[in-house]
Amino acid sequence: MYISETTVEVRYAETDQMGVVYHANYIIWCEIGRTQIVKDLGFNYAKLEEDGFLSPVMDFSIQYKAAMRYGQTATVRTWIEEHTKLRTTYGYEILHEDGTVAVTAKSQHILVKKENFRPVALKKIDAAWDAKYAEVAKIQS
């Protein structure tokens, strides 16, 4: 299983009145992680969109463990939890600098044609990308 890592500096604007990161910002950080793993594996999501495809979120689950605060640096760890013919599930951990888990999450995506939102298999669009996801997935289908 391949794990991609990137960091995010916690900005003041991302905190709430209690001085902790507002819960919705963790979802944005997961998106940063998802973008990074695609890059790390040698692919380009923007090109996929240029070619007429989108990857909408079908499900997102998140568990909050330990709040993060302004001035901290978050490490976003992302991996391919599972990759099937039509669905890809990404796994995430967002960590404090000392390794304490702040958040765990999963998001499930499908790939659709932009003009009609009909599902399409990644294998039909980019066989190398599909093969790489199958290779690095935590759960082998």
From TrEMBL:
CDD domains per the UniProt record, alphabetical: 4HBT
Taxonomic superkingdom: Bacteria
InterPro entries given in the database record: 4-hydroxybenzoyl-CoA_TE, HotDog_dom_sf, YbgC/YbaW
SUPFAM superfamilies, A to Z: Thioesterase/thiol ester dehydrase-isomerase
Keywords from the UniProt entry: Hydrolase
Family indicated by similarity: Belongs to the 4-hydroxybenzoyl-CoA thioesterase family.
Name of the protein in question: Thioesterase domain-containing protein
Organism this protein belongs to: Solibacillus kalamii
